[in-house]
Write a structure and sequence with these properties.
eight-stranded parallel beta sheet; four-stranded antiparallel beta sheet
Length: 411
C-alpha cells in the first residue's frame, strides 16, 4: 500500500474564487496555499454544470466548462488543435457534435490554462485534487453517444434511511455493466485516463456503487421501489491499471457502507474518507469518524461540499451535542475562542494521512456560505469568496496549525 504523505489542503471550487474562473485569482490562491503550508487544492468536478449549477450532473463526463476560462478568446493554433484531438479523440468528437463549432478550441484553451496552473502549483508544492461523479447526467453527451453502455428501464438512487424515508431518487442513467465488460471497460478506462491527465489525486463519488447500486424503476415517483443490484467490483480498476499504472484515487465511502465495500477499497489500497461533523453522534459510539477510530489510509475532512460549514454546524448543535464537542476538544487541549479553528486543529491532529478543510471554515463563515445542501434542489453551488478574504494573517494561522500537526511539506 502506497500511503500518501502526511499533508493537508483546502477545498475550494473554481466557481468560488472571487472571479469565479481560472486566471489571476487561481494563481493568487495557489500562492496563499503555499504560504499557508498546504499541499492540496481540492476542487469539485470541472464539467459544464446543470441548470441548478451542480457540477455533479454535467453535460459531459470528460469536457471542461468553458465558463471557467480566464481567456475564452485566446487563439488556438492548428497544431494545438490537432495534437489535442489525437490525444482526446475518444470523447472529443462526440462533444463537438453536442456542443458546437467552438467546442474543441474551448477544450484546448482549458487544457492550456489548467496545465499551466498545475505546473505553477507543483513548483509551489501545491497539488490538484479532483472529483469524479460515478454516474453521468441524463441526456448528457455520454448518455446520448453511448446508449449501448447504459441500462433501460431503471435509474440511479439511494434506498430509504433515517434521513430520507422515501430514499433519494437521483434519476441518473445506470451502467449496463455486462455491456461494459464485453468492451473491456474502455469507456471507464478513458474516463480515468482523463482524470489522471487533469489531477494529482481524484475522489470517486459514490464508490460503493462499484460493489452494489440501488436501481429504481424508471418512472417511479420515489426510490422506495428500488432494489440492490451487483456492481462490477474491482474489474473496472484492474482494466484501468493495466493501461494507466497506479491509479491516484480516493474512495468516497460515506454513509451506510457494507463490509464488501470496505474490502474493495482496501484491496485496491485506496484511502477512504472521514468527516468530523459525523464524529459526535451520541447514538454511534463506534462510528469510524470518531478521532479514536481514525486510521492512516484516510482523508479526513471537517466537512465536505455537501455539509454545513464548521461554524454553521457548531452553531446548529443541540445543547447535548455541543457539550459533547466542547468536552472532546477541551480534553485534547484544543479549546479555542473560535470553535471552527478547534475543529480544524482536531482534523489536522488525526492519524489520517491527509486533512482537508473548506475555505469557508478558515474564514469562519456560517451556514450562509454552505456550498450544497442535498435536501434542496435550488439555491446551491453559489458561494463565492470575497477578494482578499484569505489574508496573510490567516495563512500564518493555518501554517502554524499545519506545522503543529506535522503536516508541513509532507511531514
Amino acid at each position: 500500500m502506497n500511503l500518501l504523505p502526511r499533508t493537508s489542503g483546502v477545498q475550494l471550487h473554481i466557481t468560488s474564487l472571487p472571479g469565479g474562473r481560472l486566471g489571476a485569482d487561481a494563481y493568487r490562491f495557489v500562492d496563499w496555499l503555499a504560504d499557508a503550508g498546504q499541499s492540496w487544492w481540492q476542487v469539485l468536478p470541472l464539467g459544464p454544470p446543470d441548470r441548478y449549477r451542480s457540477p455533479y450532473k454535467s453535460r459531459s463526463a470528460f469536457a471542461a466548462w468553458p465558463e471557467l476560462l480566464a481567456d475564452p478568446r485566446a487563439p488556438v493554433s492548428a497544431r494545438e488543435r490537432r495534437e489535442f484531438c489525437e490525444r482526446e479523440g475518444y470523447w472529443l468528437s462526440d462533444w463537438e457534435r453536442f456542443a458546437g463549432r467552438d467546442a474543441v478550441d474551448d477544450q484546448v484553451r482549458f487544457q492550456r490554462e489548467w496545465d499551466a496552473l498545475r505546473s505553477y502549483g507543483a513548483e509551489r508544492g501545491v497539488r490538484l485534487f479532483g472529483d469524479m461523479p460515478i454516474y453521468v447526467a441524463p441526456g448528457s453527451v455520454d448518455h446520448r453517444a453511448h446508449p449501448e453502455l447504459f441500462r433501460a428501464g431503471a435509474v440511479a438512487g439511494a434506498p430509504p434511511d433515517a434521513y430520507a424515508r422515501a430514499g433519494q431518487l437521483w434519476g441518473n442513467p445506470l451502467y449496463d455493466w455486462p455491456a461494459l465488460r464485453r468492451r473491456r471497460y474502455g469507456w471507464w478506462v478513458a474516463r480515468l485516463r482523463r482524470a489522471v491527465s487533469l489531477f494529482d489525486l481524484t475522489r470517486i463519488d459514490h464508490f460503493r456503487g462499484f460493489v452494489a447500486y440501488w436501481a429504481v424503476p424508471a418512472g417511479a415517483r420515489s426510490a422506495v421501489a428500488g432494489r440492490w443490484m451487483r456492481g462490477p467490483g474491482r474489474a473496472v480498476f484492474d482494466a484501468a491499471s493495466r493501461e494507466l499504472g497506479r491509479l491516484p484515487l480516493v474512495a468516497e465511502d460515506l454513509g451506510t457502507i457494507t463490509p464488501a465495500v470496505h474490502r474493495l477499497r482496501d484491496e485496491l489500497g485506496l484511502p477512504g474518507m472521514l468527516v468530523l461533523e459525523f464524529a459526535f453522534e451520541p447514538d454511534e459510539p463506534r462510528s469510524p469518524h470518531r478521532l479514536e477510530a481514525h486510521v492512516e489510509n484516510r482523508i479526513v475532512y471537517t466537512g465536505t461540499h455537501d455539509h454545513d460549514t464548521a461554524r454553521g454546524w457548531y452553531s446548529g448543535l443541540d445543547p447535548e451535542r455541543r457539550q459533547m464537542v466542547d468536552a472532546a476538544l477541551a480534553g485534547l487541549g484544543l479549546g479555542e475562542r473560535r470553535p471552527w479553528w478547534a475543529l480544524i486543529r482536531l482534523a489536522f491532529s488525526s492519524p489520517a494521512r491527509v486533512a482537508m478543510v473548506q475555505a469557508q471554515d478558515i474564514l469562519g463563515l456560517g451556514s450562509e456560505a454552505r456550498m450544497n445542501d442535498p435536501r434542496r434542489a435550488s439555491g446551491n453551488w453559489r458561494w463565492r469568496m470575497e477578494r482578499g478574504a484569505l489574508t496573510p494573517a490567516l495563512a500564518r494561522r493555518l501554517r502554524e496549525v499545519t506545522e503543529e500537526a506535522g503536516r508541513l511539506g509532507g511531514g
